[in-house]
Design goal:
This protein has about 350 residues and is α/β, with parallel strands linked by helices. It has 14 helices and seven strands. The chain has a five-stranded mixed β-sheet, with helices on both faces. Strands 6-7 form a two-stranded antiparallel ribbon.
Length: about 350
């Protein structure tokens, strides 16, 4: 929920730009200072940009504009792909977020090819490099990911349905349900019984009924969307085939909670923390681990006032690591006229 006006936000984020290191572009990201997004991006871009976390994606354009107008600094944002209305085959490239201004395309930032940052952390190649080859039976890990895909595919279709439904309305529509997970009890994820098509259908009907005064006639639309997205998320569907990009990384991680425990972790949050810890402590150029990460780094280096690092971190300069905040990035505003997921306001 917006607790400040755009004037207040202008003051806040213009000050962000003023406080940024000289000659370094500002890169906004979603989440909080200790979120996975912020920690990972700081590792990738810390030498060449000032990474600033600012919570919700909504209103991001105004934040970027505030910094640009008040400080003349280079400022951009990197956003999650989230659940898209139309699925386009995943490319190993960033999507540009551009906005038409005075008949010209202006770059405001980029958004990932995968649904959210956890999708990258679960990637077997990333997890293996972060944790070490000997830490897990990696063939079994890949098999478990495939099993999880088949367990959550209907639930993903339901979540996409409500995400798309909410994005076309005037009010936020919650797109997850089930048991509260994590120490903050903010993230919700169903148990196995609730993952069935019957349960998901009932959940969609309940949501539509809850918002019936705001979303008149949406149930029929929701049923049509759910049918369509089930086909895309179930076996041989376009999203099913690219589930590591299209399905929610958080959902898949929580589905593997018991598997993590059986392999020596305290649970899901412990597993993700160990991956982040391994990334932060790595002496590698971790941007080379994922092609998109490398492309983002290259794009920032090429910005007019980006700083090129003169040296890389040495083995005895490993950063200290505190547990990341696996917070839920929820919003009470369902749409933003400058949201990169709104195809009318941006071009890839």
């Amino acid at each position: 929920m917006y607790k400040t006006s755009y004037i207040d936000e202008f003051k806040i984020y213009s000050q962000t730009g003023q406080n940024a290191q000289k000659n370094k572009p500002v890169i906004f990201c979603e989440g909080n200072n200790d979120s996975c997004d912020s920690l990972l991006l700081t590792k990738i871009l810390g030498d060449i940009a000032s990474v600033v976390s600012c919570g919700s994606r909504f209103g991001m354009k105004h934040r970027v504009e505030a910094v640009r107008m008040a400080t003349f600094n280079q400022c951009y944002a990197i956003l999650d792909r989230d659940f898209s209305k139309e699925w386009q085959k995943t490319k190993p490239l960033l999507n540009n977020w551009t906005v038409m201004e005075n008949n010209q395309e202006v770059l405001y930032g980029w958004y990932w090819q995968r649904k959210e940052i956890e999708n990258y952390l679960l990637d077997p190649d990333v997890a293996r490099k972060a944790l070490g080859q000997a830490r897990l039976p990696w063939n079994e890990y890949q098999t478990e990911l495939n099993n999880v895909r088949d367990k959550v595919m209907v639930y993903q279709a339901a979540r996409i349905t409500l995400s798309v439904l909410g994005r076309t309305g005037q009010y936020y529509v919650k797109s997850s349900f089930g048991n509260e997970r994590g120490s903050d009890d903010q993230y919700k994820f169903p148990n196995d019984v609730q993952l069935t098509e019957e349960s998901c259908t009932q959940w969609i009907e309940d949501i539509c009924e809850e918002y019936q005064q705001r979303h008149a006639g949406r149930l029929a639309q929701a049923k049509q969307l759910f049918k369509r997205y089930r086909e895309e998320c179930m076996k041989d569907g376009v999203r099913y085939k690219e589930y590591m990009s299209s399905f929610s990384g958080k959902d898949m991680a929580w589905m593997m909670d018991e598997w993590y425990i059986n392999h020596g972790f305290i649970g899901t949050k412990s597993f993700l923390f160990e991956i982040i810890k391994g990334i932060l402590n790595s002496t590698d150029d971790v941007s080379s681990w994922v092609e998109e990460w490398q492309e983002l780094k290259s794009a920032v280096v090429c910005l007019p006032n980006a700083c090129v690092p003169v040296q890389t971190i040495s083995p005895d300069q490993k950063p200290s690591v505190s547990a990341p905040n696996f917070e839920v990035k929820t919003d009470t505003k369902p749409s933003d006229t400058n949201d990169p997921l709104d195809k009318s306001s941006q071009k890839e």
